[in-house]
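Hypothesis: this fold can be encoded by more than one sequence.
Test: take the structure tokens below, design a sequence, compare later.
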């Protein structure tokens, strides 16, 4: 294909509704990947405020509001510090999966972490975060996946697609 034909094809894709949608989804995928990475890094840095900024408001409210959520997160981080765990590796296997609810947009973002304790014991965690973008919102917010099941996700987000099966997760010693 000639250079001129390639350039023309790019313009057609950019200007077509499906092309814009594909580009928008690529941008959203990049955004949720950056967000999830920043959220995980904040947890291992002990940055409760950053974690709270990324946490979906419905979860914050279920935890009793901002102050209670902040205290709960700080407690979990203190416990992790007490047992002296270190993030050995972190990755996002696969692309985010996007789902449209009646009101919200959802993203399933799989995570793979290897954590090492001070005793040298290693633990692999295959998990996911549920990203949620509210109507007319630019930013995504997140809920940690291992705390969700079919009923809990519907309580938090009644418009979550009914037929979708949440990803499996595991934690295992290496």
């Amino acid at each position: 294909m000639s250079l001129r034909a390639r350039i023309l094809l790019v313009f057609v894709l950019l200007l077509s509704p499906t092309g814009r949608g594909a580009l928008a989804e690529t941008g959203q995928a990049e955004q949720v990947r950056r967000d999830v990475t920043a959220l995980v890094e904040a947890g291992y840095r002990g940055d409760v405020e950053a974690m709270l900024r990324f946490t979906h408001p419905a979860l914050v409210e279920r935890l009793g509001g901002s102050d209670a959520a902040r205290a709960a997160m700080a407690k979990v981080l203190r416990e992790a510090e007490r047992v002296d765990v270190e993030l050995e590796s972190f990755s996002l296997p696969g692309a985010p999966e996007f789902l449209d609810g009646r009101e919200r947009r959802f993203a399933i973002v799989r995570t793979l972490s290897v954590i090492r304790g001070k005793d040298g014991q290693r633990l692999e965690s295959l998990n996911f975060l549920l990203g949620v973008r509210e109507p007319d919102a630019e930013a995504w917010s997140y809920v940690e996946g291992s705390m969700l099941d079919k009923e809990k996700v519907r309580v938090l987000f009644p418009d979550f697609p009914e037929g979708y099966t949440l990803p499996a997760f595991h934690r295992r010693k290496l």
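The beta strands are 85-91, 97-100, 105-117, 122-133, 141-144, 170-173. The longest strand covers residues 105-117.
Hypothesis status: open.
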